[in-house]
Prior knowledge:
The chain is largely without helices or strands. The chain has one domain. It has one helix and no strands. The longest helix has 4 residues, at 49-52.
Amino acid sequence: MSLSEGDFCVVPRGTLHNPVAVEECWIVLIETTTTKHTGDVITPLTKSIESQNG
C-alpha cells in the first residue's frame, strides 16, 4: 500500500504492520495509551508504556 499526502490508513487491531518511508515524513498515530509500540515482540527498540507516555 502506498499513501500520499492527506491519505490515511486504519490498521485493524492485532494486525502486524511495519510502516516504511523512502523519505522523511510526518505521521500522526491515534492509539490508546496502553498500546505497546512493538506489540508483544521484544526488540532493542521496545520501550515500556511508562517511557512512551513520558
